[in-house]
Amino acid sequence: MNEWLKKLVEQITALWEKWTATQKIILFSVIGVSVVAIILIVTFSASPSMVPLLRSPITDENYMSRIEGRLDVEGVRYQVRSDKVIMVPDEQTARRMRAILVREDLIPPKTNPWAIFDLQRWTITDFERNVNLQRAITKSLEQHILALDDIDAVSVTLVVPKKELFSEDQNPVTASVIITPKPGSDFTQNRKKIEGVVKLIKYAVAGLKDDNIVITDENGIQLNDFKDLRDVDRIDIAKREIKTKTDLERQYQNEIMGSLQNIFGKERVEIVKLDINLDMSQETIKTEEHFPITMKKDNPLTPYDETVVTPSITISKQTTDEKFQGTGFNPEGPPGQEGQTPPAYKDLSNLVGKYSKNSVTQNEVVNTKNIVEKKSPWAIKRLTVSVALDGIWKKKYDDKGQVMVNPDGSIKREYVPVPDEDVRKAIALVKDAIGYDKNRGDSVTVEALQFDRTSQFEQEDAQFRKQMQLKRTMVTIILALGVLFLAAIMYRFISKEMERRRRLREEELARQHQAMREAALRSAEEQGVEVELSIEERARLEMQENAINMAREHPEDVAQLIRTWLIEE
Questions:
Q1: C or N terminus of the chain, fewer CB within 10 Å?
Q2: What pLDDT score does 228 carry?
Q3: How many CB atoms lie within 10 A of CB 277?
Q4: Where on the phi/psi map is residue 247: left (φ > 0), alpha (ψ -120 to 50), or beta?
Q5: Residues 210, 198: contact at Cβ < 8 Å?
Q6: Nearest Cα to 202, choosing from 103, 114, 106?
Q7: Residue 203's closest CA among 107, 139, 132?
Q8: Which residues pair with residue 403 across a beta bridge?
């Protein structure tokens, strides 16, 4: 193997030496182009492929911004090419978003839905093209419906009749759809979702009308039969009207309570009744107004009004004046015969009469304004408010500033009613808060009433009794502790006094015994008799001698020791 490699290297080296500079440059160029091509192929193959959301460009900026906003809401990554075509990551996402856009009427009106069939082939007949078109529409429609979150399975059948020469002979396009909702979905009860699917099918098939679309569930129950849902719609409308009425009443109640509670207090204001009668009828009012024509406008620089107006301007005028005087014409018959004039007119044949007619036709023009007003969704027909105001309960105090108490231990209170002037001011505040309109028949009633505060007073009285009981208990405990403290002091004083007297008696007895012993010793020494002392007496004498010696040598220490004994005693 090594020999083969050596021979190969030698051959390549010999061949390289034989090549000219031009051949070497061409070789390096080919190698460089190959490396760049490989890098580009790897780069483009590694980049994710994207599919168009709509194959037609979206030129309407309004629709483009709305579609981009909907894609942002759904969290879909997208790109807009230079030719105004929106690209999404995959076909499944494109189908799901197309279904959402169709359901929410976000497809631009000039978008061509058949752009996918722009590719033509010469080996296919018109019949096959129609069949493929119908199959493609059916498959695409099923994919769009399956892209919805509430759909588990779907089956679509389209019937596209052959085009006839006369429109009265043309059969309509029909569509039947069987949908299986996902478990737990509200698709069968949600009318908005069903209408979205109907729109999706209608816009996907040319010439398809709502009446020719039948959508059923897996049990064969028709879902898009909205005629039976009129009662449900009426109930929903009634619920929305009641909610609107409740929200409006709550808003007025908060405004009234907010304006009165800050003045009279939260516990003294109570709205007994607030009722708003709303008119939910939908009306369009058309009004035509006629007003004078301004010939000359007012000059704002002058202090007086220079406006010149005229009620109308004549645009055409026609005057007719007819006059006649003479006898009437009485036709006679042929010569020698009497005419056919009735006797009543024959008597008037030789009378002279006059006739005069004057008429004036004049066309005037005035300023005209046509006003079309659409009534708001609701209007207040009548508003009724009833408010009760409570007075003030004041506690009674004696001359010492103590709360006065009833025999049962409750607090004495006095009720102060609301003045009439404050009631009138409260009525004015309520009227302003609700926008009172007398012509509308609004009614506002504010009365000063005494609220029942029995439970509140019982709680306050119970708390007061508890505080008074606690106060008496504390005073009793303090007095008892004071008595015990004085008794302890007296006991300690008496004990010390008795101990002191006992010690004095013992010292007196010891001194007497000592004096007797000393006297006996002295008498024994005088008589020359030897006296034997006990061990205790010897120890006591030695201690006494040591104490006397210490007192002589260290008088300060002995004095400090005596002070310490006295303090301890």
A1: N
A2: 61
A3: 14
A4: alpha
A5: yes
A6: 103
A7: 107
A8: 397
Largest CA distance in the chain: 232
The whole-number pLDDT of residue 374 equals 64
Average pLDDT of the residues in 384-395: 84
- Following CA atoms 264, 269, 273, 278 in sequence, which dihedral angle do they give, to the nearest 10 degrees? 50
Q: Determine contact, residues 285/274, Cβ cutoff 8 Å.
A: no
Tens of pLDDT along 471-483?
888 988 998 888 8
**219 CB-near residues (< 8 Å, 6+ apart):** none
pLDDT at 488 exceeding the cut of 80? yes
Residues 6+ apart with CB under 8 A from 360: 317, 318, 319, 320
Alpha-helical regions (H) of 265-395: 343-346
In degrees rounded to 5, what are phi and psi of residue 406? -75, 165
Q: Is 341 helix (H, G, I), strand (E, B) or coil?
A: coil
Distance of alpha carbon 39 from alpha carbon 144, whole angstroms: 38
Tokens of 19: 């090549």
Question: Would strands 208-216 and 173-181 be described as parallel, antiparallel, or unpaired?
Answer: parallel
CA count, 13 A, side-chain hemisphere, 442: 19
Q: What is the rounded CA–CA span in Å between residue 494 and residue 8?
A: 133
Do you know the residue count of the chain?
569
Written as six digits, the tokens of 101 are 């856009």
Whether 175 contacts 209, CB under 8 Å: no
Under DSSP, is residue 452 helix (H, G, I), strand (E, B) or coil?
A: coil
> What's the pLDDT at 47?
47
Are residues 218 and 187 in contact, defined by beta-carbon separation less than 8 angstroms? no
Closest among 134, 154, 152 to 204, alpha carbons compared: 134
Query: Residue type at 19?
Result: W
HSE (side-chain half, CA atoms, 13 Å) at 276:
23
Structural tokens at position 550: 């210490």
80 forms bridges with which residues in the sheet? 86
pLDDT tens per residue across span 215-242: 998 888 888 877 766 665 677 777 777 8
pLDDT value for 100: 81
Q: Is the dihedral of CA 498, 502, 505, 511 positive or negative?
A: negative
pTM of the entire predicted model: 0.39
**Residues 255, 432: contact at Cβ < 8 Å?**
no
List pLDDT tens digits, range 116-174: 444 445 556 777 777 778 888 888 888 888 888 888 889 888 888 888 777 777 888 89
